[in-house]
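In the previous chapter we treated chains in isolation. Here, by contrast, the input contains two separate entities that must be folded as one system, with a combined length of 692 residues.
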Amino acid sequence: MRYKSFLPWVVGLLAVALVGYWGYQQYSARESMRVYVGNSYQRAFFNVIDHVRNIEAMLAKGLVAADRQQDLELFTDVWRQSNAALDNLAQLPVSDAQISRTAKFLTQVGDYCHSLVLKTAEGQTIDEENWQTLNRLYRQSSILHRELLAINDNVTNGRFDFYKLAGEAGRKLGPTGRNLADANFSTITKQMQDYPSLIYDGPFSDHLERVKPRGLNNEQINQAQARQRAERFIEKRRGTTYTGRVTGEVEGAIPAYRVEVIPERGGERRGPAASMDLSRQGGEVIWMLQPRNIGEARWETDRAREKAQKFLAERGHKNMVARYFQRLDNAVTFNFAAKEGDVILYPDLIKVTVALDNGEVVGYDAKGYLMAHHDRKLPEPKVSREEAAALITPRLRVEEGRLAVIPDGVDKEKLTWEFEGDLDKETFLVYINALTGREENILRLYKTDQGTLAM
Amino acid sequence: MGQRVQNRSIYLAVGVLLLLVTALVLYSEAEAQNRTLYWGSRGADVTRVQQRLSQWGYYRGSIDGIYGQLTFNAVQAFQRKNGLPVTGTVAERTWAALGLAAAPARQPAAPVTRGTPARPVSDSVNLLARVIEGEAADEPYIGKVAVGAVIMNRVRSPAFPKTLSGVIYQPHAFESVTNGQYNRPLSQDSIRAAQAALNGWDPSGGALFFWNPAKPVSPWIWSRNIINRIGRHVFGL
């Protein structure tokens, strides 16, 4: 009898525990699914932006390309990118009606470029009508890119949630969902982001993956030498002492010592330590970062550029030219390329970040330079400047050209004529091989308040 | 008699369930700052504790704002390690030890909050900064740049997707993306670190992987070539 009166309690509690456990399991499973699904949508969306950005850039290049090989490559790439963009677009939880315009445009771009690929492959050239169509497609792709960036703003600040949208779509797209999607996908009202996101590292940075550095001498340094060199490298303020300390070793592409340099005044710490890597072979500074807070900007960009140039010269890099820069908050990063005579050596790249509050150098990166720099036996150009200029499309009004070495794949380099030219207020760089006359590359320059960048 | 027993057990079960539900609702209503947290507590403060414990490698459940078994275990482990009374509840001293004593005035209650940077940053910077914030919020600046650099190295590596979003959203590539932690508000440090990594600074020395040895990691990861260590992270190729 006793045992009988216990039974319901036991069964009841067990049931509660089971229900609770089950509920918790369901809840966590649902939460992780929610995040996972949301992530998948966001990935698809970011991919769409990436592909559309590439399509835009390549169409722009297509407008100024004058070489059949170049045309073939560009249009094949646009075709490929538009297919990829369509693939990703189709994964978004948005109704067909809302994305049909975008999808149609992407299909058109892809089809048209495919037809140009076939035409070019048959040996025909791009005619005036083709060019006008390309120009129109390019303008439209710019608008689309801008629209997508505006939506992206809403995605990142949480106003637009693909997961919620997917839920709404399941319920025949309720009014909120529809408004959200309408507001985001069907209008062209928002302004473009204040600067385009591009290849930040400068256009010719792919050479960094080279296996062995070329720019180091054979001297091996020890920890004490690394410390001394770091102390010598760092920029000094008056009355402050700088003490280096090796904190570890790095086994990367360039084996290095990691050194911290601590600024002190009267035995007291002044600001955060600067970190840097010094190559064990050759004892060169690979990179340096000084993570201090930067106050209000008092320096102009030009003054900062001169300062960066001086900083480099004092550290043995006298023949460098600043080609691109980018500003973030109160610091500017300059891309310097080495020069040999009048020839710009783009593979030999050093980046210098200057704080605009007091002009101090707070960042330095010479990885590109150390990987690529070597004693080049530059060939004599076989194509003259005038001959090269004549190979460029007459649509582009080019200014004076100059010789430049650009990387070719991972390990090779090419001597080219670099021309800067304008087409409808947009600036392009065209590279003509100085030995063969082939159009090697076309870059579009973005000039904004934040800097000059190339894509 | 059999009938009555059955009835009683149902009433009981329903009663206990109701009690539990009421308790849950009550706890989620109470949002006082730095209240004592224990098993069953829920809310933004639990989320904060979970985030911190997760960053420090004690907690590996989901950051859901619910004080469950995993959170309880994590709190006990944390207390044991830090010489606190092992109570499994988060009271004054544990709050302080977690570095959350004077909690920031008003944390948003929802565990999922999107970053609102001070000034508009481009989409790539923002995306990268969010992962840096999720993976390395408590790391030194160099460690943040290094985490960003690993992601950039993956974009360049033939073994990984070719786009930034492809790398970041690759399933199970980054814990903070998988559990949604990367949707936290961005710090200025993370934005700067993302910018530096995009600009090519690479304190990781070319690494493609990083991991926190204090957290349970797949033993496979130790077969990687270790390049260096920064803060709590090991970087490898």
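The two ends of chain A are 85 Å apart (CA to CA). The first helix of chain A runs from residue 2 to 64. Compare these points with the single-chain example from earlier in the chapter.
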